Amino acid sequence: MTPVLAAELVKLRTVRVTYALPAVALTLGVALTLAIVLTGEPAELSSEVGGRLTLSGGGNMAGIMALLLGIITSGGDYRHGTILPTLFITPDRGRVALATVLANATVGGLMGAVAVVTSGAVGLALMASRDLTVGLTGAELAGIAAGGVAFPALSAAFGSALGTLVRSQVAGLSIALMALFVVEPVLTELVDGYQRYSLTGVRVALVGGGAEAAGAADGGLPPAWLAALLWTGYTVALVTVAITVTRRRDV
C-alpha cells in the first residue's frame, strides 16, 4: 500500500487544483473571519456562540473545498484516463481506489490545518485588537482545531470515493452541490429534527460551529464526538461502496 499511496500523493502534487482549492479555502476562511469580527457586536463576539462562529470558519471552508478536491481529482482520473497507467502497474483496483482516498484525505487534513491556524490567528488577533476575549475554554478551542483538521480530511476522502464511484467530475460535483444546497435545505423544512443529523448539521458540529450556523437553532447539534463518528461512518460507508464497485466493473 505504501508505494501506491506515495504514487497517488505525487500525482496530486502535479495537479493545479491541488493548489488552487486550498488557496480558495484559505482566502474564504480569512475573509469570513474578518467579516465576522469587524462587523460583530462586542457582546456577541465574546460569547461562546460568537467565539465558535469566528473560529470555526477556516475549518468549515477547508472541508467544503476538500470535498471538491476529492471529487475533481478522483473523477478526473477516469475522465482523462490517468487511471490506466496506475492500474497497469498496480492491477488491484480496490487497492488503488483506497490509496487514492487516503492520499486525498492526507491533503485535506493539511488544508484544514493551514486554514485553522491562519483563520484562527487572524480572528484572535483582531479580537485582541478590539479588547475582546474569546468565550471558550482551552479544551473547546482544541476541539475546534481538531475538528477543523478532521472535517477536511474526511471530506476529501468522501469526495474521492464519490468521484471514484461516479467516474465523472461533473456528475460528482453536481451530486455534492445538489445534496448540500438543494436537497438538505428542503428536507430541513419538511422533516422536523432532520438538520441535527444531516450532513450540514454534522459538519458544523464537527468543526465546532454553533447550531445557528447549521439552521438547527431549535434542535441543537450533536456533540462533537458524535459528529466525528457520524461523518466518519458516512465516509467509510461510501468508500466501501466505491471500492466494491470499482473491483467489479471494467475501467
Automatic annotation (TrEMBL):
The chain crosses the membrane at residues 19-38, 58-75, 96-129, 141-163, 170-187, 224-245. Keywords: Membrane, Transmembrane, Transmembrane helix. This is ABC transporter permease.
